[in-house]
Amino acid sequence: MYAQMIKTARSGLKSHAEMSDQERDFQDRIDRDIKIEPRDWMPDDYRATLIRQIGQHAHSEVVGQLPEGNWITRAPTLERKAILLAKVQDEAGHGLYLYAAAETLGVSRDELIGLLHEGRMKYSSIFNYPTLNWADIGAVGWLVDGAAIINQVALQRTSYGPYSRAMVRICKEESFHARQGYHAIMKMAFGTPQQKKMAQNAIDRLWFPALMMFGPSDAESVHSEQSMAWKIKIKSNDELRQQFVDQTVPQIEYLGLDLPDPGIKWNDTTGHHDFTDPDWQEFFDVLKGNGPCNTDRMRDRVKAWENGKWVRDGLMAHASKKATSQAAAE
Ligand SMILES: [Fe+2]
Ligand SMILES: [Fe+2]
Predict the structure, then answer these.
(1) Is 117 in a helix, a strand, or coil?
(2) Mean pLDDT taken over the chain
(3) Can you say whether the dihedral through the CA atoms of 11, 12, 15, 20 is positive or negative?
């Protein structure tokens, strides 16, 4: 049933006069920065928009384990292996917090996972790109987790209590992810000419997909307007992307490497860096399923889900046995 709700979430912004008393009270709470909790009344569209957003976010955490998990057995040192293993495990935990937050809105984790596997829900497109060399692991931590943090720090102030609280925990771990990534790429940037070349190659491939993570410009999107009014979205995609570019430029300068965009330069008038927009046609193509790894990612997720069936069955059997013996004892 939520599949339908997610699809039909309306996006028009209601004026104060168009709102019912209940809707006005709800908006008033949000305007006063009072969190909305699971048992509170909320408009259906607010619920559906949140389910879609939190669900996609949860899926991204879990699918995001795949490109990095692929390198755990090939990490160059024991220390790097331990760090990467910890990071990939953290991402599973993030998925768990977020599925649990979505469940408080009345949709089960099984249903959300089913929608993902049927291709009816999305995850972040960045994970449809391959990780081809070890430097990619550094670049993913630095750029991809770095971009995710910018989005997630803003979301700590989101209006829905369980989502906001999950973000607080997640952000603490994300900062470790970005630091370990920057540290790994720094080692390579200051290493042998071959290592430096690998680092540059990883950045060349991942820069524009990282910029795409914030989504297309939402200057004209009515949908964003409603999400901003509800504080489901805190900053516009363009604001977040600009923040990411401004943060990354001094970091790449320190590394002595280049971003693959000759258009990047400081603009005194705006007080920000100018940069070239990514190729949005590519973004929509990858979103449609035509990225280099879409098929592999879904195949691996479905396989992992099926392989885990015996664990879920065992846990359910244990829970029902416990419930039966408890009922008998009462
Ligand atoms: Fe994460
Ligand atoms: Fe992360």
Answers:
(1) helix
(2) 93
(3) negative
Task: Give the closest residue to 12 by CA, choosing from 56, 35, 43, 51.
Answer: 43
**What is the Å distance from ligand 2's center to 30 Cα?**
29
Please determine, for residue 83, whether its predicted confidence score (pLDDT) is greater than 70. yes
- Write down the H helix ranges in the chain: 2-8, 21-31, 44-63, 65-69, 78-103, 109-117, 134-139, 146-155, 161-189, 193-212, 222-229, 237-255, 280-285, 294-307, 309-329
Give 167 Cα–ligand 1 centroid separation in angstroms.
10
Tell me how far apart the alpha carbons of residues 242 and 260 are, in angstroms, rounded to a whole number.
Answer: 16
Question: How many Å apart are CA 38 and CA 163, to the nearest integer?
Answer: 10
Q: 194 alpha carbon to ligand 1 midpoint, in Å?
A: 30
Å from CA of 173 to ligand 1 middle: 8
**84, 137 contact by CB (below 8 A):** yes
Report the Cα 186 to chain-centroid distance in Å: 24
Report d(CA 28, CA 133) in Å as an integer.
Answer: 51
Q: Which of 8-12, 201-205, 298-302 has the lowest mean pLDDT?
A: 8-12
Separation of alpha carbons 130 and 133, rounded Å: 9
pTM above threshold 0.90:
yes
Instruction: Name, in order, each residue with C-beta under 8 angstroms of 142's C-beta and a sequence gap of 6 or more.
Output: 178, 181, 182, 184, 185, 251
pLDDT per position as a tens digit, 294-310 = 999 999 999 999 999 99
Rounded CA separation 6/55 (Å) = 10
CB 187 within 8 A of CB 83: no
